[in-house]
Design goal:
With 322 residues, this protein is mainly α. The protein has two domains: 9-121, no CATH class; 122-284, no CATH class. It has helices at 2-54, 66-83, 103-108, 111-120, 156-164, 166-177, 185-193, 200-209, 214-226, 230-233, 236-242, 256-274, 295-302, and strands at residues 124-126, 139-141, 151-153, 251-253. Helix 1 (2-54) crosses helix 2 (66-83). The protein is elongated. 23% of the residues are buried.
């Protein structure tokens, strides 16, 4: 009797399952077929993307094993776009090079590929209407400003990887240096972020080639400041750039005297730290990253200042003719 009551239910269930199989199998097969195209997509686009990396004029991309990480970016970009339903993948704008890898893929990378990924794609960026753009000036600033907006930097997971593997990262930079035609923004960021006093001789060599590049002197002063080099901390330059009266855009004139003083102090800094066995760079505590609506901005928007009196505005009254 019970089975008899369940017979219509079972028939309907089988009916719905049949319908799902009928429509679902072709769609599933089609999706699997398109996912098989991943290899073809990577193969077809890899040469153009690798060539694109050589055209960068503002960042350095390591040559060693670059094809490996580009292939990973292309593969995950293709699958993500396919899942999101994007049927028209742009091949002209190289979006895959700025694609953020999933946590699973990022954690599965070896250190070489992860370093290449960090140099290629800085996951944190902030649109700040030019206030953080590099100042066009002959001055030497206490902070290195980026020429491109939005402001790009490494995400927390990237910074954690870079700091945790500092010694290995320095080895990668040494390997990369001989191939550099210029020191890119990302390399300067890395030299400062990891307080790479070990690379001071290479920076000085680059200064000999480009003595007018004030950003190189800016990198040196930041390394010495973060390394807490006492000779630099006692200098007039330090007082102007990082003293009590300084602010984010503090600068000194890019004179021959100041440049020579910075170079001399950088040489002394390297000489002093190089003889200290097992020297560990100090931990530099950066200011927390600003949110899109910081507390200060909230206070400014919510709290009406005394010098902002409310004004009564007379609005004209219009009569509508029907």
């Amino acid at each position: 009797m019970i089975l008899t009551n369940y017979t219509p239910f079972l028939k309907n269930l089988l009916k719905y399952i049949s319908i799902l199989l009928f429509w679902g199998c072709p769609l599933l097969c089609f999706s699997q077929y398109k996912l098989k195209d991943t290899t073809k997509f990577v193969t077809n686009n890899l040469p153009a993307y690798v060539y694109r990396l050589d055209q960068y004029k503002y960042k350095n991309i390591p040559i060693i094993d670059r094809k490996s990480i580009v292939s990973t970016l292309l593969r995950e970009y293709y699958i993500d776009e396919l899942v999101s339903g994007n049927e028209t993948l742009s091949k002209d704008r190289y979006y895959a090079l700025s694609h953020h890898l999933s946590a699973k893929t990022f954690n599965s990378l070896n250190n070489r590929d992860r370093f290449n990924y960090c140099m290629m794609t800085q996951e944190y960026y902030m649109q700040n209407c030019g206030s953080l753009g590099r100042f066009k000036s002959t001055g030497i600033y206490g902070a290195f400003y980026r020429s491109d907006l939005p402001l790009e930097y490494w995400s927390d997971r990237q910074l954690q990887f870079l700091h945790k593997n500092r010694k290995e990262i320095i080895g990668y930079v040494d390997q990369m240096w001989s191939d550099l035609k210029f020191i890119g923004d990302n390399t300067k960021d890395l030299l400062v972020e990891l307080i790479m006093w070990e690379e001071i001789p290479k920076i000085l060599q680059q200064i000999e080639l480009s003595p007018q590049d004030n950003s190189l002197y800016s990198v040196l002063v930041q390394i010495m400041m973060r390394a807490k080099f006492t000779i630099f901390e006692a200098s007039k330059i330090y007082e102007q750039l990082y003293g009590p009266e300084s602010y984010i855009a503090s600068q000194i004139a890019g004179t021959e005297e100041n440049r020579t003083a910075i170079v001399d102090m950088a040489k002394k800094c390297y000489a002093e730290l190089d003889v200290i066995p097992n020297y560990n760079v100090p931990i530099y505590v950066r200011q927390s990253r600003p949110s899109y609506s910081s507390d200060g901005l909230k206070e400014e928007l919510v709290t009406r200042k005394k010098d902002w009196p409310l004004k009564k505005v007379q609005t004209p009254i219009f009569k509508i003719k029907l």
